[in-house]
Amino acid sequence: MKKNNHFELILFDIDGVLEYQGKVYPGAIELTENIREHGINLRFLTNSTLKSAKSAAFKLQSKGFNAYEQEVITASKATALYLKELNPRSIWLLLSREGVDEFSEFIHDSENPEYVVIGDCRDDFNFSNMNKVLQKVVEGAKLIGMISGLVDSSLGSLELNVGSWVGMIERAADVKATYIGKPNRFVFDLILKQFPTIDRKKVLMVGDSVASDIIGARNAGIRSVLVRQGEFSEKHLSKKVKPDYIIDQISDLSNILFNC
Length: 260
Description:
This protein is an alpha/beta fold. The protein has eight helices and 14 strands. Helices cover 31% and strands 18% of the residues.
């Protein structure tokens, strides 16, 4: 087994980096296998709230990746782990699809929640629910947003993202939500705690978003690669926080990992 002495842990965003809108990027599967062969640890870190770690791993596997549930952290998984540390009396969860599975051990109570927890709940972002969220937060429930992103186009068209809905409640109730997913440090620290002997200088985040991946890496004290794929736009390069590396396509990451 070959050993790379430069990086010891690679964090991959999924949508926009390894695959996008259902299609795997050329060279992505081979790259992850090469990383494993070089003895480098890898994790998959996605801001998806709709997927559980199990369903995200299954989707990767179905596309040809060797990916395991314990290697995947979704925003819903990270939020559940955050709440587990708090041991809340009850939660009101607004979320759809498999991400809901991460919250099976909590007491769910939409009438008297200690925490209102908001992920992507699709068509349930309606007047009735959002007005009720406002009322519960004003009454004292704490507000958690799984991610802070305002818009998303990973499913093909531009959509309002979780942060837009949570931000509306923040403004209306005059409160500050706690956000969990990228770019917030909690989700990075969650992974890095699994590797206490690895220096953060030897950890690399690979993403297509400056706002979540690159700023998140900076917040966590690790290095980053920005890929000109997925939701990348040249205007993102005008932000104050810059990536350590920029590549045109994911297969180019080999030049950073194995030729340095």
